[in-house]
Amino acid sequence: MTLLRPPNSKEAPKKSAQLPPLTLGTPILVEEHTPCTYHPSILPPELACRLFYTMLSMSDGWQRNKWWLFDRVVESPHRTSFFVRRPEQASAEKGSLDMQEAAQYWYAYNGRTTGPPDPFPPALEEACQIIERVVNAEMHKRQRYPLEWAGEVDHDENGTADHVLWRANVAASNCYEGAKESVGPHSDQLTYLGPYPTIASLSLGTSRMFRLREVIPTGEKDERSARTFNVPLTHNSLMIMHSSTQERYKHSIPPQSSLDLFYPPFPPPPELRNDVDKLPGFRSSARGDASNARINVTFRFYRPDFRAQTTPRCKCGVPCILRPDMKNRYTAPLPGKHDSSGTGDAEAGSGGARRDMVAKYWWTCYAGAQNDGKGCGLWRVMDVKAEGRGPFVGPL
Ligand SMILES: O=C(O)CCC(=O)C(=O)O
Ligand SMILES: [Fe+2]
């Protein structure tokens, strides 16, 4: 019998099957395949429309992010802006976080711009209160990772205690005008978010495809390959990127060859009514006013234990950035605690945590993006204990 076995069959490298892209068109499919949840109709329709008009009218003044890539300056193929919530809305420890420095580093190249960050406009605050409740409710249903923020106890006006796991204290907004504007595959920097962040992403205006693709750890490359997931993000939908999304996946909004115009179901607020044709991406047609723009707002929680004043600086004197080590994600597994699911992916599905593995993160020099592409090249493993971070969900 041994003669019939192909030679070296045990040693032959296994080629993992290539999987075709999959469109995840329903909340159930998103939950089944990714660490995200999709909420198709999140705000009262009138508020969603009012917020779309508000952000779109502001977006004329937003910047294209610029950074050095090798020897040249590149520009983001969309406009972006950053908002800081009023401290009394954003924290039980009223006003404890100084966001000035963190806010200015949203813009990679113009990091040293001064002036106070923009506050949430009223419609954004209204939306944020709704989204905060939904995000906390989702997080309470999920298994949490040890390195997530432990949360804090808040008391409402009746004195009832509430365990708050997430607060949106900042929001970043992008405007994509037309089908060609985009954002390339990336995972979000963790500098102020810390490990295993939750990011809530609101879509307004034209529908665009959101793409997720896992980065397979080096040690698992022979066993499985990544799949591309496409999720159409429609007007007034919320995509929550739950913990582990930034560690395991890159996300993008790819350029498209065409898009469906968005016909707002409500007229603009009175102050904008006479200037509709001046709104970016707006045009009048027989069917009414239509827009080719998408506004995205990502609500983020800048953690108190990762506040800007605690960010390590590199030799260039600028704050480092924090990145997950996606390819060699974990330090050594603890003995005898391997994944027994047989899928090789104990984290898949609705947040099952791989508690036997410890994720690895790097503080790296970012001056390269800002100073003629020349940085000091610093790379240092984050050590949460030595750096005094926490409180965490733990135990670590
Ligand atoms: O527009 C989106 O949905 C994604 C935006 C994004 O990934 C980012 O701003 O980091
Ligand atoms: Fe992102």
Strand coverage percent: 25-35%
CATH C-level class is Mainly Beta
Largest beta-sheet details: 7 strands, mixed
SSE pattern, N- to C-terminal: EHEHEEEHHEHEEEEEEEEHEEEEEEHE
In short:
This protein is of the alpha+beta class and 396 residues long.
Topology:
Blueprint: E1 22-23, H1 27-33, E2 36-39, H2 45-58, E3 66-69, E4 72-75, E5 79-84, H3 87-90, H4 100-104, E6 118-119, H5 122-141, E7 152-155, E8 161-164, E9 170-177, E10 183-186, E11 199-205, E12 208-214, E13 228-233, E14 237-241, H6 245-248, E15 249-253, E16 282-285, E17 288-291, E18 293-300, E19 321-324, E20 361-364, H7 367-370, E21 379-381
Parallel strand pairs: 1-13, 5-6
Antiparallel strand pairs: 2-14, 3-4, 5-9, 7-8, 9-18, 10-15, 11-14, 11-18, 12-13, 12-15, 16-17, 19-20, 20-21
Bound molecules: 2-oxoglutaric acid and fe (ii) ion.
Fe (ii) ion binds near residues 186, 188 and 251.
Protein model, in words:
With 396 residues, the protein is an alpha+beta fold. The chain has one domain: Alpha-ketoglutarate-dependent dioxygenase AlkB-like (Jelly Rolls, Sandwich), CATH 2.60.120. 15% of the residues lie in helices and 25% in strands. It contains seven helices and 21 strands. The strands form six sheets. The chain has a seven-stranded mixed β-sheet with strand order 2-14-11-18-9-5-6. A five-stranded mixed β-sheet has the order 1-13-12-15-10. The chain is globular, with a radius of gyration of 22 Å. It starts with 21 loop residues before the first strand and ends in a 15-residue tail after the last strand. The structure holds 2-oxoglutaric acid (AKG) and fe (ii) ion. The site of fe (ii) ion has 3 residues, from loops.
